[in-house]
Structures are given as structure tokens and as C-alpha cells.
Amino acid sequence: MPRSSPHLPVAARVNRVMLSVCLALLPGVIASCWFFGWGVLANLALASATAVASETLMLAIRRRPIRKFLLDGSALVTGLLIGLSIPPYAPWWLVVFGASFALIFGKHLYGGLGYNPFNPAMLGFVVLLIAFPAEMSAWVNPSADLDQTRLTAYSQGRIGLEELDGLTAATPLDHVKTELSRQQTSQEAAASMASGPVAGFAWDWINLAFLAGGLWLLLRGIIRWQIPVGFLAGLGLMTLLFWLGDADRHPGLLHHWFSGATMLGAFFIATDPVSASTTPRGRLYYGLGIGVLVYIIRSFGGYPDAVAFAVLLMNICVPLIDHYTPTRTYGTGPRQP
Amino acid sequence: MATYSEITIKGLWTNNPGLVQLLGLCPLLAVSTTVINGLGLGLATMATLVASNLIVSLIRNWVRPEVRIPVFVMVIAAIVTAIELLMNAYLHQLYRVLGIFIPLIVTNCSIIGRAEAFASKNGPLPAALDGFAQGLGFALCLVVLGALREVLGHGTLLADADLLFGPLAANWEIVLIEDFRGLLLAILPPGAFLGLGLMIAGKNWFDRHQADKAKAATSLASPAAI
């Protein structure tokens, strides 16, 4: 579809965008705290402090203007996203390692803001997931009483994961996958776990809260609709395809939409303006690709969730997508030479 | 015609196959999980390079240019086969650890690269030295990257040295960090890419630092010279 002029609208300032993203994260943060306790806040504080410190360090080493780049808030958002993706009460060194890796390797070694081909937060997350798979899958049980002394000791690194026995539980995604591998049907798997109003307990509320924050971002025009809609449509189409084929072996739409990091990924992670596609049609394909990959990796892969891998894989495809989906300017033919 | 010291410096530093030419990255990334693995494959590659450069240089005047590549490949394949059989006979445990990467030395592009770029144009002695220097440069890369990944991944150095040096070396293993649970990432393929990237960055940084220092020295010295 051709677009009329102006072709170059006034771009939003980076710090306004980043501030809005921080505000929009609030409902999801509150919901996570409600179910998982103060560990979420500890992660967020530690991750954003590390991210900002790493950003400052790298800007100083690279002799770039520190104030200008630090005040744009992009490092803060990367830190917050990492803090939200790491399980609450994770050992402090895990959070510090992930956040500093994201900023140093994921962002500044590629040239800083605007030059990184990969989403830095997801790069940090994937490195943690590959390096420390056990710690990265240990989510505390949201329906049990939390033993604060043990959790504090664990997050301070004084006791290991094995001493958290009884405090952690499988997430709905893990639970359903395990039950399916034990030849249970998806209905039996859903019945044998705690449920909320929409899907698996706690995670459905958290996803709803992120959805609310994301819709607010959409209304304010900070993000475009193509990526979240593409993401949810891609995931939804794949889910329906398999679910209609054999509903006993494949969980339904609500399970996939409201479990794990789906809504956080669709509205906050995949929409990263630097590493996502930049053309309107391209954004739709980019989102669709992520959704399809999330379904494939979640269902047939060995990792607890798939948003990070799907986003990174589609980040690689962005130059190709942008090349084939240029916006047609008014007055030119359907195909540009 | 390059002097012997130039050939050596090129192979070890300024034209290092791993850090500058970026040749033979597949074995470099895949086998460098420990120092001993890296050293084993590095020595095998070095032996292949010396022998192939020497033979290619000796036959360079009898091989017509039209068929030189197939001839070089056959020479290299024969040498690698001999080395593979020797390792199977004398270093059997290491042979089993390195597995497919020993026969794959034949596909290491730095070997055919040296045969084509250097040995086919130079006499036997410089050619053999070039093979030795290039092979040593490659082996050093493997050892350094292997050490980096072994320390980060296992907290040890020279583990399983007996595979290469016989039962005498069974207690050479140095435990740097007691009860270290290991950074799994360093052992996995991403660790190899990250480690090699950091090594290349380190070399480039060092070279630029030296160049800056040399420039500063000449700009200071030149007024006095005038």
C-alpha cells in the first residue's frame, strides 16, 4: 500500500520512548511481584544498576559522550527486560553476569545504540540460559508460602539451588510439556496444575498485565501494531493448526498466549526499535516469524521458553526482510527496480 | 625473497593463520575445548604443514600449473593419512578424542593455502620453515584458546595430559579453582566463537597500541634528527 507524504515524520526522542516503555512495564512488574514477591524487584534493581554501570563503563572506554547516551534510558530498559526475564531470587552474580554481557557484548561491541543487530536483553538472557540452565529454570512456586530466609540466602549466593527444595515449581509451560511427554493428554495436563481465570495460575495474570501495558504503548503510538499482532497471530495460527489436528496432544490457544513470556515478548521485547524490522510489512513478517518460531521451539525444543531464541533468530533475518519489503512511495510502480 | 626471520614472524604473528588469515577455523573452534586437545591437533597440523610445504616445494618445478591443485591435494591427503595412522598407533587415546578432526586436517584451508601461496614459489628450506612457523602459529592459537576455555569451563589446565605425553604426565593437571562448577558456556561452541573473537580483538588492540607508540616515538625523535 503506498503511503502519502510526509514520509519523514518527526521522530520521537529516544528518552521519551524509553520512559514510556518503563511506565508500560509497571502493571506487569506489579503482577509479577504479587505472585513471586520481592525477588522480582531485587532482579530489576540489580539488573538495571548493572546495565547502567556497564553502559557508563563502555561509553567511557569508547570515549563517547556519557551524559547524552546515559540519559536516553536505553540501557535502563535493557536492564529492566533482563531483570524481568531472569527467575526471581536468582543468585546475584547471575543477574550481574547477564546484564553486563547484554550491554558489553550485545550492544557496545557492535557499536552502541542503533548498531546492534541482536536484541541485547535477549542475548544476555540466552547466554545465561545456556551457561546456567538449572538456575535459569528455577521459578519459585507462586501458590506456596515463600521461605524468606532460604530465598534470601539463595539470591545472595550463600546456598545452592539444590537447597531450595520444595520452593520451586514447574511453570505451566514446563508442566504441560512434561505431562505430554508422559503420555498424558493436554486436558489431563491442564487439569493437574493450578489454573487461573485464563490459563496456568499466576502466569496468566502476569501476561494479562503485560498485555494491558502493551496496549497502552500501542495507543500512545510508541510501538506499531504490526509486530505484536504478527507475533500473536503466528503463535496462534501454529497453535490452532496443531490443536485442530490433535487436541489431545497439543495445548490450546490460551495456554500459549498466556503462558511464559508471550505478552512480554510480543509487546516489549520483539518491538525493540533497533533490532526489529523497520518497514510496515516487514514488521508484520518479522512478528509472524517470531510467533511461528516460538511455537516450534516451545513444542519441540528442550528449553523452558522460546521467546528469546525466536527473537534472536528473526533478528538475523531483519536485513533480508527489510530488503524485500520496502515501502512503496506514492507515484511509483508496484515493483521498484 | 623473504628472510627466515620474516617468515617466522609472519607465521607466528603478523600473518597468523588463526588470528589474521582466519583460516582453518572449523578445527580451531571445534577442538579447542582443552589445552591438550588443542595441542594435539595443533602439533598434527604443524607436522602436516611442514611435510606438505617441503614436498610441494620439492616437486614445484615438475608439476604443470594446470594440475597443481589436485596434485597438492593428493600430497596433503597422503601426509594426513600417514599422520592419522601414526596417531592411531602411538597416541590411540588422543586419536579417539580428536576423532574426525584428524582426517579433516586435509580440508584445513591454511594447508592448501600455504602450498599455493608460498611453497609452490619458494625453495625447500624456506618452504619448510614457513610450514613450521604457520603451523606453530596455528598450534599456539589452539593452545591459548584451549587454555581459556578449559580454565573458564572446568577450572583446570593440562587435564588429561597423559593422552599426549604418556603415563608420565598423568598428574600434570593443574586445578586452578577448587570445586569450580564451570562456566558451561565456555565449553559449548558459543564459548569458542567468543574466545576467538576476544583473542583477535586483543591482538588488534596490541598491534594498534604498538603502532601508536612507534608513531609517538618517531614524531618525538624527528625534530632532533633534523
3D structure, described in words:
The complex is a heterodimer of chains A (337) and B (226). In chain A, α12 runs antiparallel to α14 (262-269). Chain A starts with 13 loop residues before the first helix and ends in a 13-residue tail after the last helix. Chain A has 337 residues and is mostly helical. Chain A contains 16 helices and no strands. Chain B has one domain (7-218). Chain B has ten helices and two strands. The chains are: A mainly alpha (337), B mainly alpha (226). At the A-B interface, α6 of A face loops of B. Chain B: The complex is composed of six subunits: RnfA, RnfB, RnfC, RnfD, RnfE and RnfG. Chain B: Its EC number is 7.-.-.-. Chain B: Keywords: Cell inner membrane, Cell membrane, Electron transport, Membrane, Translocase, Transmembrane, Transmembrane helix, Transport.
Features:
heterodimer, A: about 325 residues, mainly alpha, 16 helices, B: about 230 residues, two-stranded antiparallel ribbon, 10 helices, 2 strands, about 70% helix, flat, electron transport (chain B), EC 7.-.-.- (chain B)
